[in-house]
Amino acid sequence: MGSMNDVFMDAMRQVDREAPPELVNGFRDKMRSIQAQYKHTETTVQSCLDGLSESPSLVELLTAAFVVNGGVLFKYDLDPEDTEEQEFTSFIKEMEAGLREPE
User: Fold this and answer.
1) Could you tell me the CA-to-CA distances from 94 to 28, 77, 97 in Å, in that order?
2) pLDDT in tens, 66-83
3) How far apart are CA 49 and CA 61, in angstroms?
């Protein structure tokens, strides 16, 4: 029976390899959908799409997702009283709003 560390080590062996084309295509589609739906992310998403190589590695995809998600490390909110991440997210949104071009 394997341990959870096996899952982590398996992932570590994969991160520098070329991501499967289906994953890359789905990832690019998702990024474009985010870009279209959330206008405040337009420049950030475009930067990530432009930065991805033709055949990106998993680490490139993970980095792009991290950047687009505003640097959120964990999706699980274990302590609703902890507002530090909420403050950081608000700060990022304010920064992005300030960088937006006037319409």
Assistant:
1) 26, 22, 5
2) 999 888 877 776 766 656
3) 10
Angle at 75 between CA 74 and CA 81, to 5 degrees: 85
Instruction: Produce one character per residue of 12-45: b if its CB has 16 or more CB atoms within 10 Å, e if not.
Output: eeeeeeebeeeebeebbeebeebbeeeeebeebb
**Side-chain half-sphere of 80: how many Cα atoms within 13 Å?**
0
Burial class from Cβ neighbours inside 10 Å (0-12, 13-18, 19+) for residue 89 reads middle
AA identity, residue 6 = D
pTM attached to this predicted model: 0.66
